[in-house]
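Quick one, probably user error.
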């Protein structure tokens, strides 16, 4: 049980570091979707497209080095060599990208059809974010979750505060001859959003400067090549993941008629955020569980712990899924403020289930990380990306954002099943499939019934939810009592 105590303690703190910042960030959705803040739904669509490119380039600039750092930090005797080699590698590649991107920013803007003034801001943000990848990984690897959490939360608090200032307060504060008048520019909302992001990223790097000041800058070329070989499949998997997660916005822009594309993207992206509760749970779990996987790999019978962890994840995830689905329509006026976005509410259960499958996949991925078969992670992710692209290309013109939501679900569900299939062969783990399957299937069935057949009937939805929680409590009460005791 001590292993579970460590995992849940770290997951709780990393959860705060993930959930609180994203909840603060979550408040930006009602800000952006309030009438009068952004000129139209299409403008929010434009912001969403730019953030889609953010996700892709963040993965490219990290190129799997974060996961490689965890693996070799726990594996190698000389920790300083691992820290120094990975840090120097990230600094060199980040600066190289920064210089090339600035030189060719006009060509990039033309190629992806985004205003060059936004591209310039994005390049700076990507550089600053890349330079804190290893420092944050070091905090996780050395079990300093509180410092990690404080810096992450501060980053988004600054971002949120500046968004509120620029989009809500600045216009009213501006008057002839005042300092605020020199800052305020009309029709500058999108630029203000990225300026806020840039300042928050700069402050985060400053707070991480102590890491750069105290480490030893030793570079082991042999270790570096080994780390790159380990990291390359992670990079491919990351790119594939980013395609699954955000590329649908880009395809919607390219495949739908120009007069409706950005509006559909705006509606889709706003309602997608209601599924954030499942995304936060899966992301927090992933942050806590990845170091746990590696640090307990040499323990006696680690497979038993890994199996129990997945069981808990599915139990909690099932409750989150059903709760959000039952109360989705009650939540929507607080999250997506304008009715102009609500047409896309149809996607909410689909995206929630998709991210539930992704969270299970994170848990199942232990087998290829522990056995150094990261190429399987790349194969599975690429296959998922192919599914995403195929469904979007085939059906976007007919079904719009609905095709994108279905593509996300099919891709993540397929990846989950493939990881389980290959894991049985290379690193068998005794998962309790009957119990996991029960929680998973019942929660999805009740979610579909609640949303598509008894929508906004909160009496029936609440009965379904309480009955399901009761089933879980009966089956897990002994384990829960032991966890709470400890």
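Nope, works fine. Designed sequence:
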């Amino acid at each position: 049980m001590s292993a579970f105590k460590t995992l849940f303690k770290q997951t709780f703190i990393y959860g705060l570091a993930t959930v609180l910042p994203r909840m603060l960030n979550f408040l930006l959705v009602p800000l952006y979707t309030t009438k009068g803040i952004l000129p139209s739904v299409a403008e929010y669509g434009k912001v969403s497209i730019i953030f889609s490119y953010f996700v892709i380039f963040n993965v490219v600039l990290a190129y799997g080095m974060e996961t490689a750092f965890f693996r070799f930090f726990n594996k190698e005797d000389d920790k300083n060599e691992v820290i120094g080699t990975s840090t120097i590698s990230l600094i060199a590649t980040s600066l190289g990208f920064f210089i090339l991107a600035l030189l060719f920013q006009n060509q990039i803007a033309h190629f992806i059809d985004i205003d060059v003034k936004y591209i310039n801001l994005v390049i700076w943000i990507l550089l600053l974010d890349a330079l804190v990848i290893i420092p944050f990984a070091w905090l996780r690897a050395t079990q300093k979750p509180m410092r990690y959490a404080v810096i992450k939360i501060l980053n988004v608090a600054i971002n949120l505060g500046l968004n509120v200032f620029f989009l809500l307060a600045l216009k009213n504060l501006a008057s002839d001859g005042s300092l605020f008048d020199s800052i305020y520019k009309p029709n500058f909302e999108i630029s203000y959003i990225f300026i806020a992001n840039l300042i928050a990223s700069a402050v985060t790097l400053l707070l991480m400067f102590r890491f750069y000041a105290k480490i030893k800058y030793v570079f082991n070329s042999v270790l570096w090549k080994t780390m790159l070989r380990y990291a390359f499949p992670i990079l491919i998997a990351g790119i594939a993941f980013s395609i699954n997660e955000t590329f649908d916005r880009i395809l919607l822009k390219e495949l739908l008629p120009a007069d409706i594309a950005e509006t559909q993207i705006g509606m889709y992206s706003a309602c997608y955020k209601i599924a954030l509760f499942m995304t936060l749970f899966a992301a927090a779990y992933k942050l806590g569980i990845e170091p746990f996987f590696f640090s307990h790999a040499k323990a006696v019978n680690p497979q038993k712990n890994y199996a129990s962890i997945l069981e808990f994840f599915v139990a909690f995830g099932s409750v989150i899924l059903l709760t959000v689905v039952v109360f989705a329509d009650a939540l929507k006026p607080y999250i997506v403020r304008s009715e102009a976005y609500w047409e896309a509410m149809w996607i909410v259960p689909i995206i929630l289930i998709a991210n539930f499958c992704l969270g299970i996949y994170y848990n199942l991925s232990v087998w290829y990380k522990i056995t150094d078969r990261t190429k399987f992670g790349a194969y599975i992710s690429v296959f998922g990306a192919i599914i995403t692209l195929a469904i979007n290309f085939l059906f976007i013109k007919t079904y719009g954002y609905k095709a994108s939501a279905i593509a996300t679900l099919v891709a993540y569900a397929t990846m989950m099943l493939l990881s389980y299939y290959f894991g049985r062969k290379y690193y068998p783990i005794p998962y309790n499939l009957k119990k996991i399957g029960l929680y998973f299937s019942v929660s999805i069935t009740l979610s579909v019934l609640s949303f598509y057949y008894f929508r906004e009937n909160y009496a029936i939805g609440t009965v379904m939810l309480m009955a399901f929680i009761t089933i879980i409590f009966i089956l897990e009460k002994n384990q829960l009592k032991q966890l709470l005791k400890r």
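The CA atoms of residues 368 and 374 lie 5 Å apart.
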